[in-house]
Inverse folding.
């Protein structure tokens, strides 16, 4: 065994600053992905054929190709086409939001379909407009059903966010690699990065359980 | 009030309603009875457009209902077999939701009216409970209060006591009897023959998608004209 954490100590703040970068990245991707995913799921269960077709095709493409490929296309290929240069962070967020929206839309669609159809009928019989019914009656119940699956998606997103290091965004992963390269010692910084990711995921898991408990109060 | 002419409804190749013609007058209490699969519930669901019919017409005060979906639903209240209360809302919120959202009544006003309705169905103390805390009979009474909060002119009941334990049936029927006394127009799909006999002004007997008899209860239960009604009554009475 040849481990020397003493050498790592001066670089710890540099790596831990990456938590902030990663969290920002995940939070923005999450919110965008969730909103877009909700819209897509409503397309999928809606009556308009062209929107349904679009949402299905969209999901199929984003689920059927590697995430890293999608990211490289957005980061390298889009600027080539449009002449518009987007930064690593923005490209990463965009990729993750577009990609997770595909998965989230499937989760929400399944959640909506699992809500008893009597709920929709009761809302219709009371004259409640479609939009209000979806937002205030159906989706809140769907959310409760899908929270575990959604939390899973969020955890995956947190872990997978490490691939933005490939396009040079300074997240936890990238910082650990830089420290490793400058000290010629990779094991210690990568171990630290692993610990940080693990703790983040545990925190998300806990937060998910707390939310589930809060939503369960009507049971 | 409602005119039904030659009403037809199919699910795929299965024709469930084969031409129903009848009339619902203001203030009438109508019980719809018949064997399961005879189309009773489908008939009721067509009346407030939960099902769209394939043939014939339904007119509300002389106007085709298909064109007045929102108007119609404000006038017609519905109570379901499985209650369909909103599980994530409290009893009070269940009742005040539609008046606030659809009729744009202020929250305070809606709550005041809701509490009066809860009082009328004997559940004022459950206002802040969630539906999962209620028994089946209590849920159905809340569902009736919820429909009444929209101040409908007609109330439709789709087998309101069929999903209840026997000891809860009475409390729900009592609430419905009280409603009859207020002069509400009601159409009730039911298997409770005693109740139908007691409160209904007319009995509609349906079999195999057809309206077989349309009679006063005294006549229908004592002297059913058709053989099908005779056979049915022998089985259920």
């Amino acid at each position: 065994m040849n481990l020397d954490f003493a050498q790592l100590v001066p670089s710890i703040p540099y790596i831990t600053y990456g938590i902030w970068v990663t969290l920002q990245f995940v939070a923005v991707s999450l919110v965008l992905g969730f909103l877009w995913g909700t819209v897509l799921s409503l397309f999928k269960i809606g009556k308009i054929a062209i929107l349904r077709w679009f949402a299905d095709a969209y999901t199929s493409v984003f689920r059927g190709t590697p995430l890293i490929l999608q990211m490289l296309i957005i980061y390298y290929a889009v600027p080539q086409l449009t002449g518009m240069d987007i930064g690593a962070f923005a490209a990463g967020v965009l990729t993750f939001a577009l990609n997770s929206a595909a998965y989230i839309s499937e989760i929400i669609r399944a959640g909506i379909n699992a809500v008893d159809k009597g709920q929709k009928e009761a809302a219709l019989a009371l004259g409640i407009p479609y939009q209000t019914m979806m937002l205030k009656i159906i989706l809140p119940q769907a959310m409760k059903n899908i929270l575990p699956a959604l939390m899973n998606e969020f955890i995956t997103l947190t872990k997978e966010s490490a691939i933005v290091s490939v396009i040079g965004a300074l997240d936890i992963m990238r910082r650990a690699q830089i420290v490793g390269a400058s000290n010629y010692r990779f094991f210690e910084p990568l171990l630290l990065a692993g610990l940080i990711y693990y703790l983040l995921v545990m925190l998300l898991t806990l937060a998910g359980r707390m939310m589930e408990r809060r939503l369960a109060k009507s049971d | 009030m409602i005119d039904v002419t030659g009403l037809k409804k199919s699910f795929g190749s299965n024709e469930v309603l084969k031409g129903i013609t009848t009339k619902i007058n203001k203030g009438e209490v109508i019980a719809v009875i018949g064997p399961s699969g005879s189309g009773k519930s489908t008939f009721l669901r067509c009346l407030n457009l939960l099902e769209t019919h394939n043939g014939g017409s339904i007119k509300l005060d002389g106007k085709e209902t298909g064109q007045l979906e929102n108007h119609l639903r404000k006038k017609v209240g519905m109570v379901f077999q499985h209650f369909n209360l909103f599980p994530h809302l409290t009893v009070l919120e269940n009742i005040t939701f539609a008046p606030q959202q659809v009729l744009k009544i202020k929250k305070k006003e809606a709550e005041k009216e809701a509490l009066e309705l809860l009082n009328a169905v004997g559940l004022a103390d459950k206002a802040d409970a969630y539906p999962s805390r209620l028994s089946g009979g209590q849920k159905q009474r809340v569902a009736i209060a919820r429909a009444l909060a929209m101040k409908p002119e007609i109330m439709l009941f789709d087998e309101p006591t069929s999903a209840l334990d026997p000891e809860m049936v009475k409390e729900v029927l009592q609430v419905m009897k009280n409603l009859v006394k207020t002069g509400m127009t009601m159409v009730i799909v039911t298997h409770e023959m005693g109740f139908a006999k007691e409160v209904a002004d007319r009995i509609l007997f349906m079999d195999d998608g057809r309206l077989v008899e349309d009679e006063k209860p005294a006549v229908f239960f004592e002297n059913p004209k058709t053989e099908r009604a005779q056979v049915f009554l022998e089985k259920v009475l």
User: Anything to note?
Assistant: Chain A has a mean pLDDT of 89. The CA atoms of residues 67 and 99 of chain A lie 7 Å apart. DSSP finds eight helices and no strands in chain A. Helices of chain A lie at 12-45, 49-64, 67-82, 88-114, 117-125, 130-160, 172-183, 187-215.
